[in-house]
Q: What sequence folds into this?
């Protein structure tokens, strides 16, 4: 039997999504109650692409649940000698692993690994495909901020979220469009044509706005995305200066937000490009709250999939 995994938002049932979010609330309220959930369990942190937030929060979450992390050092591993992904994973599984948290630059690789191992696999970001745990922590942060964790259960009905920037290369956007729509939010994608996928047929119903100044006043939350220079050359934007002028979250744009609108960014940020420091560090910013909540949401996912906690 293939173990229960968290590979992409589309693969999670509505019940499973709500269970992750509800359990995250419980763990955040009373971490001590869950402090032995992963006692005797070992989680492999298998990051073959750089990460600060996701990796550190999965390690912190494992620790808070009483488990042990084994951290794979990709840069000094035999992957560098040409060992295959599957041989590497199957080798590591012989050391007694109860779950795998995996980041990889190839879209679909966590699903490939999940089909070959006997432990749960959690996708911590695969190429330009998905970043499901980021979307879950983003939703958790919005639900918490708007005090919507109660009935109707974990719903974003009536809220509009604008996702702004480099949507083309963003796994965060791909996971968020699916999750936000599933939770009932209206989703606006706002980007230059060159940074939008040419085929949106796999996306749920989203609206497209090409002018940020039109999108901002409609939104209850604005999620800025990092321009991913490592996945492109400079040719998709006219220049950094013009990008900031047309697409940057500046203090002037903060002034046209709804009075109670909030700002998110998955990080890492290009300060002064897609978001100015005056916005990122303002009272409207939930960016550090996203980071904090990443631990609780990832703890909930580990508790259910690796620790066997029932919702
Ligand atoms: N948001 C996010 O995935 O950040 P890291 O790349 O630092 O993990």
A:
């Amino acid at each position: 039997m293939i173990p229960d995994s968290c590979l992409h938002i589309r693969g999670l049932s509505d019940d499973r999504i709500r269970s992750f979010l509800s359990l995250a609330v419980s763990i955040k309220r009373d971490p001590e109650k869950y402090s032995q959930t992963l006692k005797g369990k070992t989680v492999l942190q298998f990051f073959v692409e750089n990460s600060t937030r996701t990796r550190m929060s999965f390690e912190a979450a494992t620790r808070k649940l009483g488990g042990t992390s084994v951290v794979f050092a990709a840069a000094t591993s035999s992957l560098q000698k040409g060992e295959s992904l599957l041989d590497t994973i199957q080798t590591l599984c012989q050391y007694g692993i109860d779950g795998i948290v995996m980041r990889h630059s190839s879209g679909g690789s966590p699903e490939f690994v999940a089909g070959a191992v006997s432990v749960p696999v959690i996708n911590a970001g695969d190429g330009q495909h998905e970043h499901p745990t980021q979307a879950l922590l983003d939703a958790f942060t919005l639900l918490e901020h708007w005090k919507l964790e109660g009935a109707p259960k974990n719903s974003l009905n009536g809220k509009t979220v604008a996702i702004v920037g480099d949507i083309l290369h963003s796994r965060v956007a791909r996971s968020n469009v699916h999750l936000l729509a599933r939770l009932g939010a209206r989703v606006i994608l706002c980007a230059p044509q060159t940074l939008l996928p040419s085929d949106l047929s796999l996306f749920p119903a989203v609206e497209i706005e090409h002018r940020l100044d039109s999108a901002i006043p409609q939104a209850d939350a604005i999620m800025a995305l990092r321009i991913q220079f490592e996945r492109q050359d400079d040719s998709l934007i006219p220049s950094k200066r013009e990008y900031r002028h047309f697409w940057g979250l500046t203090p002037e744009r903060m002034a046209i937000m709804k009075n109670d609108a909030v700002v998110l960014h998955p990080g890492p940020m290009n300060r002064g490009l897609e978001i100015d420091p005056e916005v990122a560090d303002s009272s409207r910013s939930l960016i550090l709250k996203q980071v904090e909540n990443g631990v609780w949401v990832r703890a909930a996912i580990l508790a259910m999939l690796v620790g066997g906690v029932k919702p």
About this structure: The chain has two domains: 9-131+294-305, 132-291. Residues 51-54, 125, 134, 266-268 surround phosphoric acid mono(formamide)ester (CB under 6 Å).
